[in-house]
Amino acid sequence: MNISKIKMFLKLYWIRILLIAIGSILLTFTIILMAAGIRAMINLESFYKQMMFSSIPVQFFLSVITAIIFASIYMFFNYWFLFGGGMTKLGQKRVRAEEVNITWNEVVGMEEIKREAWEVVQLLRDHAQLKQVGGQVIKGLLLSGPPGCGKTYLAKAIATEVKMPFLSVVGSEIEGIIVGLGASKLRNLFKEARTMAELKGGCIIFIDELDSVARTRRADIGMGGQMSANAAVNQLLTEMDGLRKRENNIVVIGATNVDEKELDPALMRAGRFDRKIYVGLPGLKDREQLFSFYLKKIQHDQTIDVSLLARKCVYKSPADICNITREASIIAVRNKKDSVGMLEINEAMDRIDLGLKIPIELNSKEKEQIAYHEAGHAIATYLLHPTDDVFKASIIPRTVGFLGYVYHRSKEEMHIHNREYYLANIKVALGSYAAEKLKFNTTTSGVDEDMHQAMVWAYNMCWRWSMGPSGLKGNFKELEKSFAGHSWLGSSGSNYISEKTKETLDIDVQKILNQCLKEVEELLAKEIPLLERFAKELIARQELDYDEIEAIFKECGKTKLTV
Amino acid sequence: MRKNKTYRLVFFFLICFFLCGCFPIKPTYTKENLTKSITALGKKDYKLSIDSWLIGNTVWVRIPVSGLFDEKEQLKPQVMGDLNKTIQAATRVILSMNPRPLFLVAVASDIKETGMDCLFINYIPDIVKFQLQYLSRDEFYKRSIITIDQNAFSLGDESGSRLKKHDLGLGDFLNQLIMQRLRNELSEIYFEGKTWKIKIKTKEENNIIKILAYFCKEYDFNDFQIIEIENISSGEKSLVSKEDLKNFLR
User: What ipTM was predicted for this assembly?
Assistant: First the structure.
């Protein structure tokens, strides 16, 4: 009975017992050492005793000074790393509204977006009036969209218009190597913003690359990194909608390239990022405005047709358009010209889209093979593609297209595509293979990327979009992804698709590829004179532009397929 | 009220703590038991048989050894080690007494082979300064006189009774120290009454006066009226007054 009681006691209090035992041992040793020390001190000869006593105050003061120095260093680093010091302010820029200096009129090429943003500007300007009627001030504005579309520019213009101080921070710079540093930086950022808001009546915090600090919170997988990221999101949530003694006119503008779905849902709810504006790629009219805006800044040929340029720059962002005009001005300087002309702009576009020319010397046989390869693409595009035009064909090696390329795309943005579009894409990709086979009765490794593209489209048609010839319906790729488990080694999951279905889908992929190839082969066999003409012209001129391509097809009595 | 008492107590202890070096401490050794204490300490802590004598203001300590030099005609390491321990034992006793003597002469006597004595002479205030780190080790050794004397009586003298012991004066000590420092330049240095007579071999008179001035200042030595420097190669004599000597260092 007694033994069991002792066992129970030990089980309950073993840590306490262990600590007491260790403490007692340490105390005993300390007492023994102190006693030995005192004894040795008593037995010291008078000279050394006097020396020791005399040095006590000096040693004491030295210890105090050393302690003060080390404590100061420790406190400085502590403050610097965690409590509002320099480390926590890294990546944070404070800018006054007048220093931002981007006016509303300077924001061009996003008229629809500007209209939406203007409403936000009005709400921020009239926050006092809004409060009078009992309305709530906007807390957050999320600007999402592809890169280079002017999100930062728009945020700066908003700051200029509402005449508020502007604190700018990049999301990726908030997180650091120290766990909790991100949260600390955010805390200090908002603290500064509140001070600014009290002084100036309001403040705008702009967080670029918001996704770096606002991704959906997840459980930590044991390495601690996720905990830090979660802490930063929690801090942002608290700062935006936490318990505050006083409400301040602080507006957070976040910019991100990622989908809203990937951001933490708590941040997206009303009361945090109240307003969301999608800053997408510019439309035709917007691109015209952008070209006019950027061309105004450089010396240019007044005959340049901005509407033509806008049509040529489908899927180009404002940053791309800015880059084209800048590149064109550099080319003009290199060509010793006073102003930028259409030639320079075309060269700049080629350089940006297709890369720089590579000085590779091709022999005549290689040139011929490449020319027929590209001719196959061009003819398939011209005669079979429902939306795309051939803008350029070249056998000059470049960094993007490598040995040769055919540049084709639609005349206007398209946001959704049908089965025929993808089949046409596959046919265009396989055009090179068919042409090589038809002309040389063999094929080359040059079809590598074409085959890859064709397979990707065929695969997606069958596995994702229910466009396969067998009639199987469903998004099989997403099904696998949806049920896949996540671990720190990557994603893994059970197999939800039967082997038979997979086999059918794979057969569908091959059927599509073979059917497309057959059609292209038939087309090219029928259009051998056109193939020969196009290839020879390409060998002779190296590069063919839109007008030249059109002329060749017209000479051969062909017209562009239109749907 | 109670709080005030606590503050006063804390303040009192703090004052005691900081001023503890200012309170007088009873010397561990006395003049009467000096020689016995050195011998006892040597036996107890250093396992050496040290003989010691107090002659006036000079403490003589001696250890008998068997052979002073090795094959390379250097002092044997064993002898050096024992002599160091002897000096340490004597120093510990001398420093912890009040008033202190002025000179310590440590002797290693070869009682077996040659009858030579190796003498280390130190000015005790220099030892104190060295202990309190006012003097560097290098400077301390420069202020130590090391001499080798031939003393046939030392052979077989186990007790040290035949060692020629006498009381040293600051003047004698300085003469030997300056002589040691300027061994190549000096011929002779001695006192004749209150005249400090210096016979030199070199023309570099200024250098010698500089050394004299330095030592007189360092040891606060004034027990002379005039310095007479005689160049034995030319026979020229020059006189240096105390004032001139002081001015020399300015």
Answer: 0.81
